[in-house]
């Protein structure tokens, strides 16, 4: 992955600002992008997506804490399932306005230029954003999004949204295959203009979407076709990740909150520490966490407050508090775990033997991301290795959970899908189960009431965090 400085986006944006004082300029719609370079719009979608997911109050409080990777020793309402609705609103608004809206504009402008590669990348970013939205909320607007005359868009069912996501990714593949036009190197904050890697991302995101719905739909033919295509990620170099910079305001948002803003209440959880110790996974423990003031790795029990003893508990590891920690959109390790699961469940050919090959590759890839090398002894240890389908199912899910450390929303979402490792609601929880979804944006309740009410009526427990999303059935 090429490291592209985010300062480019700020600088290029400045070049688009007009000093024209005439009537036409003054009366341009504030809802329409005034930027005409579709490459810059693509950069905006990448930054906006990752900044939302790595925001410590979103991906930390309602991701890493709900997945029980982290625990807070103070200010832990969100950890106890009492969220700030404004934060949930912000995810909805950012994904629709700053990602989907800009990606649609980039697609149209790139089409005017005959640049199918840039169009493909814009569709990939749309597909990724829509999947984030529907996985978080359930039914969401899709078909009527971006239609100028529609101010109160209807919601599509989750099944429909997934059909549209898969179609967007198929369209992207067709556009990449035609191969016309370039993606500006300095604006492509994921791959530095490498279209072949965008093509792999499209295929790998399709694998992710298919595996996420694999318990409610037969996806075998489509997943096997992806394996046969040779287009899936094949090394860590293919991982889609935003390179943050060492300085404000373009550092990783986790660093900006915990280090720069000195929010030291964020600690690792006892669940994470205990799981790593039980797997003899001491190498990753040393990366995921720091020792406490007694030189030991001690996690806070999720949901408990220990405001008078911050230093008794382990903070997240220095690697994960680095301002340049990459913002991972999709990793090669995650792709390998999906393939391991697919082989284990008979979705693709190969059975248990093939599952083990992909499983070991996924573990090795995550160790490498963390600056480590996995040992044969670790892979062959009975608490890591497997010999039955049921054992494999649990261990693949657990290793996926570990590999998603740092990616809060994704870690919680994959846990919701697999149920591994077994987690219980935190101490002092405000509701009876670990949340299954976000509340809808309050703006939708206020300004799109009919569509909102129709969507809520399809949820098994209404607009609550206990309602299941479609693929959890």
From TrEMBL:
<dbReference type="InterPro" id="IPR011990">
    <property type="entry name" value="TPR-like_helical_dom_sf"/>
</dbReference>
<dbReference type="InterPro" id="IPR041662">
    <property type="entry name" value="SusD-like_2"/>
</dbReference>
<protein>
    <submittedName>
        <fullName>Starch-binding associating with outer membrane</fullName>
    </submittedName>
</protein>
<dbReference type="Pfam" id="PF12771">
    <property type="entry name" value="SusD-like_2"/>
</dbReference>
